[in-house]
Design a protein that fits this description.
The protein is α+β, with helices and mostly antiparallel strands. It contains ten helices and 23 strands. It has three domains: about 90 residues, no CATH class; about 250 residues, TIM Barrel; about 160 residues, Immunoglobulin-like. GO terms for molecular function: 5'-3' DNA exonuclease activity; 5'-3' RNA exonuclease activity.
Amino acid sequence: MGHDHAHPHDHPHDHSHSHDHSHGTEPGPDGGDPVLDLSIPDAELAPHQLARRGFLTRAGILGAGLAGASVLPAGAAHADGRHEHGHQPSRRAPRHGYAWLAGDHHIHTQQSSDAQYRVADHVKHASAYGLDWMVITDHGSIAHAKIGVEKVNPDIRAAREEYGEQTLVFQGLEWNIPAAEHGTVFVHPGSNEVAVLKEFENSFDGVVNNTTASSTANESAALRGLDFLAASVTKGRVKDAMFFANHPARKGIDSPHEIRGWRDQQPRIALGMEGAPGHQAAGIPAPYGPGSGRGYYDNSPSANSFAGYPLASYVTYGGFDWMTATVGGLWDSLLAEGKPWWITANSDSHQVYADDSARPVGQDTQAYFDANGRYGDPVHGSTGPNLTQGDFWPGYYSRTHVGAEQFGYAAVMQGLRAGRVWVDHGSLLGSLDVRVRPAGSRDPGYPLGSAVRCRRGQQLELVVSIVTQDQPNWAEFVPALAKVDVIRGTVTGAVSDKDTFTTPTTKVVKTFDVTGRRGQITLTYPLGRADQPFYLRVRGSDGKRTAAGINGAGVDAAGPQADALGNADPWNDLWFYTNPIWVLTS
């Protein structure tokens, strides 16, 4: 199939950001303290800043802060430029331009028992393929908890030293969530990053502590793990920490109530899920590929699976997880509650499709790994191209684009927490900006992740600004965008049944046919008079594989098709998705 492109590409890599590597508190307007500036919403603060604001609020020094668990309490920015506390819009408020930094928070190295590459291998490839940030997330395990967390840290610090001007490298791990699937956990770099991650893994990893089975007790253990991460921030051990659920529908064991529980327990830590899993090469037909499902979504229900999930949830749709791809499905049910729950897309890179390296003989056994916490360094050229592997290098196919105020670790984490995130496959787009603004206004509007408060009856519009792709992707063709969908749902508030995974009011309300259009595309969609709270999200595709959605053509006339097991070329089915914007009325 010709997807082995080991030769380098000279693609532009201008990120248009300043390289501020001071990892302290970011300044507020005019250099002031962002904790004290109430025109900066809570969603824009790191957890340690939020904790300090809460303390000052309880002490009567500050006015009431904004809620973190839901967009519904008062506190969203006003669409006419006013803010909750009467302040003028701040220069740090989310109304200005951002550097959109591409990244990947799910990557495995030789410190994972089913992977093989060095940290340096992944960082070099990620930097070459245009990533600005990445997270090393080796599997939680007894060996990793014992020695792996410490052994990988010098490699990460060396990569930061060598590539710090191009690619930020976070240390994290892939958490075996008690009673559930896997998840990325990572922290802001600092002197305690190893100590915090090591204590977290030893105390709360499902494999290490034998808490993987579905049970109420094990679900509680997961919540205690999130509490530990939050406490590590508020106590100042690390500056920030985050959790994202990985491949959430793959085995059906992340139940709706668990996902809601994570978010409700620690909304500043539990931020979202992979909207699209890694392992995207796994669906390439044999003998040219693994012949499995995209993301290795080729499972059936087990005793630990949530019984309410349909069989349709165990496959991907255009490479995206069923929870994300279903209009009116689980993700939308969370957004309709007003719960910020963001999606990402990552490589989950372990062993790369068509690579020709292998673990060294004698240092490739489980016994060696258990004793040393890692395999030996891979030997390149030791085999021919391996077409049985389902992974791509970080940045090669899947990207998570984060709107950051500058190039830096804190800024990336702040952008992730604020939900200024969109994702794409195969470099489908050159760039994307999505805003809500007053109808007919020249105001730049409010970006992804915003909760915009407007007067009841105010006329609003959605503006989608796209620069189409003009460079070949790594499969050596220039992707062509064919359509853009606007998805809208009513905000209905909290559900009584925490296992709800549908919302009947959400549907595709507009499809723009952009076939053949190139360069700058601006799409404006009138939202009418705001008379009740709602949210919007946007997606689009190359139009090569579409079908009526799971909830019918009246909800989604041309959504992503279910990917066929053993016959799903990822390059022939490209999509982008954005995170939502809420509109709240008063």
